[in-house]
């Protein structure tokens, strides 16, 4: 079936079942950002391949609600599918629920598959529509009956990491979570989110592209701890190791019944990371405590072992990037390079490093106007050929067994215009301002966001995405709970967090600029006025200086850039051969 036919088939089922509107979220039973093929429901239904969006289908309208990162991409991918782009005003907000409230009447029914919708999403729909007399059915799957040859769940092997890698044992992590549960007088806790499960059990897998996680649920109870995972994913020795850490192993499919069988006490569920089907299955006599998974807050603060491993991974990543940019500079004039081929080449350079597992997300290699699409991924149709002119944006990362990387650089391929230099320098100025920030303990991410944006705002420019996201340790490249964005999110910046700083400027149809480093939040000093923190930059890759307009920088920015590039050379040159070291030396000369 093509997308028009799929839409028609969904509408036929809606009519048969008395459903007036059907919602398809972008998630899975674990409320993941990146999905196994089986749960790429929005891509299968509409053709949109972005990682954030919601489809809403009525009898006479079908729309995709998504945010500014995907406006151009969605507009192109939805053409001819029967779906229209609806632009979100606020990223992540379920604005489609408000739209439905205006379109539907009392007695109408809205439905969705509760295995795919987060509790928070389901509650937002219920709170908006039920007071109007609109019925909400959270247990209806209209895709599976029509999805021919739907991919099965992945069956690749999982594996355990030792304490030398993680810095903390599985048993001690579980005890730390149980201590938090005890404080809240909670008897049971379901962990659905795959990165939380991976961190808690020191387990990794290959079930999700670019994310080293394994599908599973983890149920913590007063008298036992149970991992629900597909049979055969772990060896007998690994199961025995988990048993020794106080973890029983059961089949993946038994998790739902295990939660349903809890008959009393209290259960903690993270409404943003748990699907509605589990939430709705909790027995009436069990009190639900709706809070963030304790492991989420524990996981984001990296221990000393994780930090040292990450520093080591950054050196390896920097070597790969140096080789890549030298190769790119030498080859671009031949007219044979494309966005896809350079992404593959970069992955190849990373793969030469010890401990490399995978890329940490699909490489964004955006040439000219494609650089203006923050989440661009080249396809065979869009794959641009590089020429020795214009700007190239490369946003990429690696998954190593000793850390996760995420970096964006922009380089000139030749014939740069004054406006491009101005925009580049303003973005660089923002990156430097954020990286140099000194702030009191207790600061939230929106303050760092404002500090980073200030030099860009001063020139009446802005960008539509957040300034930074948390990054896991050999885990998801997007990790909460901290974010650096404009929203008033009440999450403190804590010592040991690893977060990106990545301002940008985008001119649709022309070019995009983003400069991204990862930083480690650290304590700097305590004095009469309080406790203060700053950032240690972790990313090790030169920042191009041929695009810089020095007249737009203060001396403190020039000094930072020169120190940073000198440090990059110092860290990487011992790992490079003479030819690559000489090239990097030229790239890191002071301006």
TrEMBL record:
<dbReference type="InterPro" id="IPR050422">
    <property type="entry name" value="X-Pro_aminopeptidase_P"/>
</dbReference>
<dbReference type="InterPro" id="IPR000994">
    <property type="entry name" value="Pept_M24"/>
</dbReference>
<feature type="domain" description="Creatinase N-terminal">
    <location>
        <begin position="7"/>
        <end position="129"/>
    </location>
</feature>
<keyword id="KW-0378">Hydrolase</keyword>
<dbReference type="InterPro" id="IPR033740">
    <property type="entry name" value="Pept_M24B"/>
</dbReference>
<keyword id="KW-0645">Protease</keyword>
<dbReference type="InterPro" id="IPR032416">
    <property type="entry name" value="Peptidase_M24_C"/>
</dbReference>
<feature type="domain" description="Peptidase M24">
    <location>
        <begin position="309"/>
        <end position="520"/>
    </location>
</feature>
<dbReference type="Pfam" id="PF16188">
    <property type="entry name" value="Peptidase_M24_C"/>
</dbReference>
<dbReference type="Pfam" id="PF01321">
    <property type="entry name" value="Creatinase_N"/>
</dbReference>
<dbReference type="InterPro" id="IPR029149">
    <property type="entry name" value="Creatin/AminoP/Spt16_N"/>
</dbReference>
<protein>
    <submittedName>
        <fullName>Aminopeptidase P family protein</fullName>
        <ecNumber>3.4.11.-</ecNumber>
    </submittedName>
</protein>
<keyword id="KW-0031">Aminopeptidase</keyword>
<dbReference type="Pfam" id="PF00557">
    <property type="entry name" value="Peptidase_M24"/>
</dbReference>
<feature type="domain" description="Peptidase M24 C-terminal">
    <location>
        <begin position="532"/>
        <end position="590"/>
    </location>
</feature>
<dbReference type="InterPro" id="IPR000587">
    <property type="entry name" value="Creatinase_N"/>
</dbReference>
<dbReference type="InterPro" id="IPR036005">
    <property type="entry name" value="Creatinase/aminopeptidase-like"/>
</dbReference>
<comment type="similarity">
    <text>Belongs to the peptidase M24B family.</text>
</comment>
<dbReference type="GO" id="GO:0004177">
    <property type="term" value="F:aminopeptidase activity"/>
</dbReference>
<keyword id="KW-0479">Metal-binding</keyword>
<dbReference type="Pfam" id="PF16189">
    <property type="entry name" value="Creatinase_N_2"/>
</dbReference>
């Amino acid at each position: 079936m093509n997308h028009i036919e799929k839409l028609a088939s969904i509408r036929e089922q809606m009519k048969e079942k008395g459903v007036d509107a059907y919602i398809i979220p972008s998630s899975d039973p674990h409320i993941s950002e990146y999905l196994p093929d089986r749960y790429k429901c929005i891509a299968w239904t509409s053709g949109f391949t972005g990682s954030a969006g919601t489809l809403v289908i009525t009898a006479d309208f079908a729309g995709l609600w998504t945010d500014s990162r995907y406006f151009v991409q969605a507009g192109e991918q939805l053409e001819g599918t029967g779906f229209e782009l609806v632009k979100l005003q606020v990223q992540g907000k379920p604005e489609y629920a408000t739209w439905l409230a205006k379109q539907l009447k009392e007695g109408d029914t809205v439905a969705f598959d509760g295995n795919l919708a987060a509790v928070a999403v389901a509650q937002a729909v219920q709170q908006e529509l039920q007071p109007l007399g609109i019925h909400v059915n959270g247990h209806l799957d209209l895709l599976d009956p029509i999805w021919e040859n739907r991919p099965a769940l992945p069956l690749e092997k999982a594996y355990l990491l030792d304490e030398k890698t993680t810095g903390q044992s599985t048993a001690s992590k579980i005890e730390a979570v149980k201590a938090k549960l005890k404080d809240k007088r909670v008897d049971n806790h379901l962990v659905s989110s795959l990165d939380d499960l991976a961190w808690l059990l020191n387990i990794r897998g290959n079930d999700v592209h670019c994310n080293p996680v394994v599908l599973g649920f983890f149920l913590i109870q007063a008298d036992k701890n149970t991992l629900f995972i597909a049979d055969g994913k772990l060896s007998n020795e690994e199961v025995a190791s988990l048993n020794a850490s106080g973890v029983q192993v059961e089949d993946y499919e038994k998790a739902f019944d295990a939660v349903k069988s809890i008959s009393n006490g209290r259960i903690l569920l993270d409404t943003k990371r748990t699907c509605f089907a589990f939430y709705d299955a909790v027995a009436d006599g069990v009190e639900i405590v709706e809070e963030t998974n304790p492991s989420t807050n524990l996981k984001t603060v990296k221990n000393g072992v994780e930090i040292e491993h990450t520093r080591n991974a950054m050196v390896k990543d920097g070597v790969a990037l140096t080789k890549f940019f030298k190769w790119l500079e030498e080859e671009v004039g031949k007219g044979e390079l494309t966005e896809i081929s350079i992404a593959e080449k970069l992955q190849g350079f990373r793969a030469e490093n010890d401990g490399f597992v995978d890329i940490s997300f699909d490489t964004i290699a955006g040439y000219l106007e494609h650089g203006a699409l923050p989440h661009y991924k080249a396809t065979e149709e869009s794959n641009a050929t590089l020429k020795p002119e214009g700007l190239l944006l490369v946003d990429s990362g690696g998954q190593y067994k000793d850390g996760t990387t995420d970096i964006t650089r922009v380089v000139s391929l030749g014939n740069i215009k004054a406006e491009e230099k101005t925009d580049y320098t303003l973005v660089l100025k923002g990156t430097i301002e954020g990286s140099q920030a000194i702030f009191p303990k207790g600061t939230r991410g929106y303050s760092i966001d404002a500090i980073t944006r200030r030099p860009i705002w001063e020139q009446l420019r802005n960008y539509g995405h957040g300034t930074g996201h948390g990054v896991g340790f050999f885990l998801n490249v997007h990790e909460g709970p901290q974010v650096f964005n404009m929203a008033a999110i009440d999450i403190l910046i804590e010592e040991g967090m690893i977060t990106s700083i990545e301002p940008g400027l985008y001119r649709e149809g022309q070019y995009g600029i983003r400069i991204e480093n990862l930083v480690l939040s650290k304590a700097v000093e305590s004095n009469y006025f309080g406790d203060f923190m700053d950032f240690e930059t972790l990313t090790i890759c030169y920042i191009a200086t041929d695009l810089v307009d020095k007249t737009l920088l203060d001396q403190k920015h020039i000094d930072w850039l020169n120190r940073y590039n000198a440090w990059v050379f110092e860290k990487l040159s011992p790992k490079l051969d003479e030819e690559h070291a000489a090239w990097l030396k030229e790239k890191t000369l002071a301006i």
